[in-house]
Amino acid sequence: MKIISLMLLLASSCMAQQDVSALLEPIRLKYNLPAMTAAVIDDQKILAQGVTGVRKAGEKEKATLEDLWHLGSETKAITATLAGTFVAEGKLKWNDPVTLHFPEFSNRIHESLRDVTVADLLSHRAGLTANLKWSEFGTRNLSRERLKAAKDLLTSPPASPVGSYAYSNAGYVVVGAILEKLGKKSWEDLLRERVFAPLGMKQTGFGGTGTSGKIDQPWPHLESGQPVAENGPATDNPPAMGPAGTCHASIGSWALFLSDQLRGAAGGKALFPTNIYEEIQSPHPKDGTYGLGWGVGRRPWAGGKVLTHTGSNTMNFAVCWLAPIKGFGILVCTNQAGDNASKAADEAVAALIAWRSK
């Protein structure tokens, strides 16, 4: 795997950026959200960013640009990128069948699932159930728990027709187990070493944000706008399902990841070779709507192809849109879940697209 020199990238990121907080504030107020942050990026730097609101409804602590925001299923693109680092090293192929990576129970894998590939898992076409009862899995040895989940899933009949699209967090946990076997470390440690560190993503982590009981990070809120009873690392999806959706990051660190996706799409100096980005960012040939960790579509404002995803752990909301042809992206986060959060994020994205086009 290439280790990227980030001197130019970091230097450019330190240049003056336009503050779009005033653009976000009326949208936040319209939908009565506690806080919102957003950024406009290109393949090298943040062009504009902003933040507005408070970390917890009814309290005075303001959200900041250094705060950490829960990314939910945005994590899926990060997990697919982690898999890409192994593909770049020749240790993994997208068309590897699951039987290859689980020899210890390959003879027990359900006959309908024996030909399921890594790409099938990442594109939600493996026929697996959306979720298991993740709360029943332990937290002391997450690699062991994810391997257990993979065994339970693959030795059971498929929940939907193999090859058809059916969104599955469970499929990403199986991929996580494969990567943990290949890298001989937890998914969390592999991400730190293979994605976060090379890209300079210093403000990242897993699980809920903040110190339990302290308003030192954005506090999670329900769809009603009510703050949840507790915050902190444990206030999240169970950690066993990490590869599907437990990452958090500052807006700046998430921007570093997304800028790398744009550089990779453009053939620039990135985490791994361009052809692997093309594979991650290309839609499935059957229906053309989902790649490997990315929703794929077309929009006039993007000049054609877009990459997008939303994420929510039912207490936070995040969305991003990348326009590879025009070389820019928009990312938005808020510490509330639900319909108002989604609508506010959509309005913020539209306003920032308009801002960029001026």
Write a structural description.
The protein folds into two domains: 7-74 and 202-357, DD-peptidase/beta-lactamase superfamily (Beta-lactamase); 78-189, 3-Layer(aba) Sandwich (Beta-lactamase), CATH 3.40.710. Helices cover 35% and strands 15% of the residues. The protein has helices spanning 7-13, 21-30, 75-88, 98-101, 118-122, 142-154, 169-183, 187-196, 242-245, 251-266, 274-281, 339-357; strands at 18-19, 35-42, 46-53, 68-70, 204-206, 247-250, 295-299, 304-311, 317-323, 328-334. A seven-stranded mixed β-sheet has the order 1-3-2-10-9-8-7, sandwiched between helices. A hairpin with a 4-residue loop joins strand 9 and strand 10.
CATH topology of the largest domain: Beta-lactamase
Largest sheet: 7 strands, mixed
CATH superfamily of the largest domain: DD-peptidase/beta-lactamase superfamily
How do the strands of the widest beta sheet line up side by side?
1-3-2-10-9-8-7
CATH class of the largest domain: Alpha Beta
Q: Care to count the β-strands?
A: 10
H/E element sequence: HEHEEEHHHHHHEHEHHEEEEH
Write the layout of secondary structure elements.
Elements: H1 7-13, E1 18-19, H2 21-30, E2 35-42, E3 46-53, E4 68-70, H3 75-88, H4 98-101, H5 118-122, H6 142-154, H7 169-183, H8 187-196, E5 204-206, H9 242-245, E6 247-250, H10 251-266, H11 274-281, E7 295-299, E8 304-311, E9 317-323, E10 328-334, H12 339-357
Parallel strand pairs: 1-3
Antiparallel strand pairs: 2-3, 2-10, 4-6, 5-6, 7-8, 8-9, 9-10
Helix pairs in contact: 2-12, 3-7, 3-8, 6-7, 10-11
